[in-house]
Amino acid sequence: MADQVQLAEAERLASQLSFPERLKLVARICEQLSVETAGIGDRNSAAEQRLAELDSWLAECDVLRRRIQAGFDSVEDIRQIREDRAGRQ
Q1: Fewest beta carbons less than 10 Å away: which of 24, 52, 66, 88?
Q2: DSSP state for residue 51 in the 8-state scheme
Q3: The whole model's pTM is what?
Q4: DSSP alpha helix (H) spans, 1-89
């Protein structure tokens, strides 16, 4: 840890650089930060995708709950299954 530079020391050293060299330093720091934070967006995207899948699943559960509350019509269910199978052939 003795090799680490404190922020104040880094600012002092950076102020000694010429303007073009300071711009290069800023560009290099930005590039490093972009690399270090690149995975954060991927993790957020994965979490958002999981939430979307969960929302879809919950919507399906809600449809099933409404069907259960409304009761089942076995005759209609069998008719629908036959129509679905006939449509596939």
Answers
A1: 88
A2: H
A3: 0.42
A4: 7-15, 19-70, 74-88
Return left, alpha or beta for 18; rule: phi > 0 is left, psi -120 to 50 is alpha, else beta: beta
pLDDT (0 to 100) of residue 1:
47
Amino acid of residue 61:
C
Round to whole Å and give the CA distance between 65 and 61: 6
Inter-CA distances, 33 with 17, 26, 60, Å: 21, 11, 42
Given a cut of 70, the residues of the chain with pLDDT beneath it are 1-2, 41-42, 72, 89
How many angstroms separate the Cα of 65 from the Cα of each of 16, 29, 42, 52, 75?
Answer: 70, 54, 34, 20, 19
Query: What is residue 69's predicted lDDT score, i.e. its pLDDT?
Result: 76
Structure tokens at 79: 């008719």
